[in-house]
Amino acid sequence: MAPDGALRALADLTGAFVPLSLRDLASTLEDRLDKVPARLNEYGYDPFGMSPAAMRRALLPAAWLYRTWFRVETAGIDRVPEGRVLLVANHAGQLPFDGSMLAMAMLLEAEPPRLVRGMGEYWIPRIPWFNILATRGGQVVGTPESCQALLEADECVMVFPEGVRGISKPYRKAYRLQRFGLGFMRLALETGTPIVPVGIVGSEEQQPAFANLSGMARMLGMPALPVTPTFPWLGPLGLLPLPVKYRILFGAPLRFEGEAAEEDHLIEVRVEAVRTAIAALLERGLRERRGVFR
Amino acid sequence: MEKVLLTGIAGGQGRLVARRLLEGFEVCGVDRVPWEGRPRGVTVHQVDLRKKKFEDVVRTEQPTAIVHMGFIRHFRTDPRLRHDVNVRGTKQLLDHCIHYGVQKLVVLSSGYVYGAFPENPYNMDEDHPLSASRSYPEIRDLVEVDTLATAFIWKYPHIRTCVLRPVNILGYYVQSMIGEYLRQPRVPTMMGFDPMMQFIHEEDICEAIALALAHGLQGVFNVVGPGAVPLHTAIRETGGRAVPLPEPLVRPLFDRLFRLGLWPYPAGAIDFLKYPVTLDGSRFVEATGFKPLFGLQEIFQSVRRE
Asked: Fold for domain B3-302?
């Protein structure tokens, strides 16, 4: 048990030098994580490998980004119903800070706090250590089976139906919603899940991209290779987002009825309703903001 | 009184199942090795499933039910022999069921047949494809056995055939790959990976088999225990010490050592230390009302060394 003791001593020591506000944030996080409704076994894990205890430290950077860097404001978060729910949002900004800020909002501001489940990329489970972090934080590989299992377990799942089309788009297409995938609607119909449209304002300006070198990205096996004012010119530093102001607007829950196996064009009609709701939220968010950074 | 025949009756799990079934059945069995100190009333025939002598046993014993669990699951024998015993032995057994009026058949397959892959969803149901051979060709015989038995359900619907796919079985008596792995003094794991693993106690497997027979179940069923924990938690709770190894280095090494016969696990087994294989057992629960008696802590306690 010696390494454990040494680790704890080290953690205490760093704790002593951490600014007070950060320590406050850490204890808020711990408190919120304790309140997350979850079905944990005697070892503190849920069936999907999520563990609130393992996330105490790991979520601190995201919480700091939420409070200090992006100064996130939310509207209508009380509209998210209890039980199974799909949060459907616009996707932008080259790196998925929008996903982590949405998840943070649900953890820090929703009552009761929810641990949002994300649908991760297929390559995440192959990456050493990172796969453990993602799993403990409640992320699963984005297969329809996984999403259905999560919804049937009454979890809160976030999806970005624009996918790579949305997050990797250049700045000139900012706040123009790209084509939506249909999978989320079929799952919602299959599992009788309400959909909460979410508009995220701010993400478009965090890393404005001039271009996306998709040919080069394919060669390197990456999903996209954006060129921004800071990336790749400043190296890893260029990955840091601008300290834009984030606003996350939640719409009224939408409930759809019908068969999951219906023809594409019938599903598209319902998807369009969600897309329109998100567009309206974005428009409102853009109208209300006073600037990109405030 | 119904008579049940067990294959692999002298193995750790076989003995437990035999004792459990004695409560409601007349029990006989076959194995390649004898069972010293077996309970009274249990007859054991030392035969090879592939040989005519096994057919003679089925003909003379006239069991109404067969529980098929006599598989070679370790890698210490010649792989060709292993394949032949498991696959051809099963094929012969299925033929005997048709010819000698067996009414119920329970085949103890395993959850490994789904295979360990990065894209595996959590809680896979019975319709998930059996892909283990893709990354772990050494256990393709067990996938074939499962497929043979599953096809048998549809070909001969008058025989109540039930294929059980349990999660990792642990216990004091059972000789399972996972038990052997966890009992090592230093347990090799893959650096940066810690997949969720489900466990079930050997006594609960006996209960599941008894329930399958009592209900005359027909179909394919995952059998899931009390829950899942990360691999490293299981190692800690069984009193072992995990030794994380860098996979790019050890995979070729283990592969070489296994081929030379110096290491008991093929390289394909490594994926089960990286990716989750967790099953949804609700179909079996709905059909039988099965509820595992042993919790996770008790399961780990049963294989804990001091």
From this structure: Rossmann fold (3.40.50)
Query: What does the pLDDT read at residue A1?
Result: 43
pLDDT beneath 50: ranges in chain B: none
Contact B121 A135 (CB under 8 A): no
Backbone angles phi, psi at A120, to 5 degrees: -85, 170
Q: Answer yes or no: is A169 within a domain.
A: yes
Neighbouring C-beta atoms of residue B40, cutoff 10 Å: 5
The tokens describing B142, both together, are 């067990």
Contact B119 A131 (CB under 8 A): no
Token representation of residue A12: 């205490």
Q: Is A174 on the interface with B (CB under 8 A)?
A: no
Q: B254 near B267, Cβ under 8 Å?
A: yes
Q: CA–CA separation, A138 vs A118, rounded Å?
A: 7
Q: Is residue A294 part of a domain?
A: no
Please indicate, yes or no, if residue A249 is contained in any of the structural domains. Answer: yes
Q: CA A193, CA A87: separation in Å to the nearest integer? A: 10
Range of the domain at A168: 21-288
Are A128 and B121 a contacting pair at CB < 8 A? no
The partner residues of B104 in beta bridges, in order of sequence, read B65, B160
Q: What is the pLDDT of residues B25-84, one digit of tens each?
A: 999 999 999 999 999 989 999 999 999 999 999 999 999 999 999 999 988 888 899 999
In a domain, A5, yes or no: no
Q: What is chain A's Cα-based Rg?
A: 19
Please say if the pLDDT value at position A11 is more than 70: no
Q: How far is B22 from chain A (nearest CA, A)?
A: 34
Give, as one character, the DSSP assignment of residue A280. Answer: H
How many domains does chain A divide into? 1
Contacts of residue B291, Cβ cutoff 8 Å, sequence gap at least 6 = B285
Largest CA distance in chain A: 63
Specify the CATH number for the domain of residue A270.
Answer: 3.40.1130
Quick check: B193 and A122 CB within 8 A? no
Sequential DSSP letters for chain B: --EEEEETTTSHHHHHHHHHHTTTSEEEEEESS--TTPPTT-EEEE--TTSHHHHHHHHHH--SEEEE-----SSSS-HHHHHIIIIIHHHHHHHHHHHTT--EEEEE--GGGG---TTPPSSB-TTS---HHHH-GGGHHHHHHHHHHHHHHHH-TTSEEEEEEE-EEE-SS---HHHHHHTSSEEEEETT---EEEEEEHHHHHHHHHHHHHHT--EEEEE--SEEEEHHHHHHHTT-EEEEE-HHHHHHHHHHHHHTTSSSS-GGGGGGGTS---B--HHHHHHH----SS-HHHHHHHT---
